[in-house]
Design a protein that fits this description.
Elements (H helix, E strand, L loop, with lengths): L2 H8 L4 H22 L3 H24 L5 H28 L4 H23 L8 E3 L3 H17 L4 H19 L4 E3 L12 H16 L1 H32 L1
Antiparallel strand pairs: 1-2
Helix pairs in contact: 2-3, 2-4, 3-4, 3-6, 4-5, 4-6, 4-7, 5-7, 6-7, 6-9, 8-9
C-alpha cells in the first residue's frame, strides 16, 4: 500500500465543531417541516436555535484548535439551509403563498441573496476587513424575517393585512445581503478585558428585557442592525469626502 493511500485513509473530520454545525442544520430543517405542518411559532424558535448553534461552532473550533476547510464549507451549507431557505419558506407558507408569483419571487430573492452572500463571504474571507461584513449577514437577515413572524403571531395580526409588508421585507433582506453596505462584525470587542460595573449591569438588564419580550426585542434589534449598515456606510463615505477636501 502506498504512502499516498495511507494518508488518504487517515483523513477525517473534527467531530466537536461539526456536531454544532449539524445541530444548526437540523434546526433549519426542523423549522421547514414545522412550518409545513402549520406550527409557525416552533418554526421560528428553531431558526433562532440554529443561530445560537451557528455562533458556537466557530468559537468551539477556535478554542479547541479544530478549524478545517471542511468545517468552513459545511458551515456555509448549513447556513444556506437555516438562514437562506428556511426563513424564506416559513414566510412563504405563512404569508406569501396567497400572493401567487409575487410571493414566490420574494421568497426566492431572499434565498438567492443568502446563497450569493455566503459565496461572496467565502471568496473574500482572506482579504476582507475583519471589523466589517460586506452585506447583511445571513443570520441577521433570517432574524428579521422570523422575528417579524413571531412578533405578528404574538400580537395576532391578520395575515391578509401584513402580507404586503412581509413581501417588501422579504425582498429587502435578500437585497441587503448582496449589497455593499458595511455591517459591524463586533470582532473588535474584547470580551476578556475589564469593563466598568455599570456595563455589566446594562448587559444584565438587556438580557432580562430580551427574555421578558423576545418576540418584540429580537425583531427590533435585528431590524436596527439592518438599518445600521446603510447609516454606517454613508457616514464613512462622508468622512472620506471631507478628508479629500481637506
Amino acid at each position: 500500500m502506498s504512502i499516498e493511500k495511507r494518508s488518504i485513509r487517515r483523513r477525517g473530520i473534527y467531530l466537536l465543531p461539526n456536531l454544532f454545525t449539524t445541530g444548526a442544520l437540523f434546526a433549519g430543517f426542523y423549522s421547514i417541516t414545522s412550518a409545513i405542518n402549520g406550527h409557525f411559532e416552533t418554526a421560528v424558535i428553531a431558526i433562532f436555535v440554529a443561530m445560537i448553534l451557528d455562533g458556537l461552532d466557530g468559537r468551539v473550533a477556535r478554542l479547541t484548535n479544530t478549524q478545517s476547510e471542511f468545517g468552513v464549507q459545511y458551515d456555509s451549507l448549513s447556513d444556506m439551509v437555516s438562514f437562506g431557505v428556511a426563513p424564506a419558506l416559513v414566510m412563504y407558507i405563512l404569508a406569501l403563498s396567497s400572493m401567487g408569483r409575487a410571493g414566490m419571487f420574494a421568497a426566492f430573492v431572499h434565498t438567492a441573496g443568502g446563497a450569493l452572500r455566503l459565496a461572496r463571504f467565502n471568496a473574500q474571507v482572506g482579504t476582507a476587513d475583519k471589523r466589517y461584513f460586506q452585506g447583511l449577514p445571513s443570520p441577521a437577515a433570517a432574524a428579521i424575517l422570523v422575528g417579524f413572524i413571531w412578533f405578528c403571531l404574538e400580537h395576532d395580526y391578520d395575515i391578509q393585512v401584513i402580507k404586503y409588508f412581509a413581501l417588501v421585507l422579504t425582498i429587502c433582506t435578500g437585497l441587503l445581503m448582496v449589497s455593499n453596505f458595511r455591517y459591524s462584525s463586533f470582532k473588535e470587542i474584547d470580551l476578556k478585558g475589564k469593563v466598568p460595573f455599570i456595563v455589566a449591569i446594562a448587559v444584565m438588564l438587556s438580557i432580562a428585557f430580551v427574555m421578558a419580550q423576545p418576540q418584540t426585542t429580537l425583531f427590533f434589534i435585528s431590524l436596527g442592525y439592518a438599518i445600521s449598515g446603510p447609516v454606517v456606510t454613508l457616514v464613512m463615505r462622508k468622512r472620506r469626502l471631507l478628508e479629500r477636501k481637506m
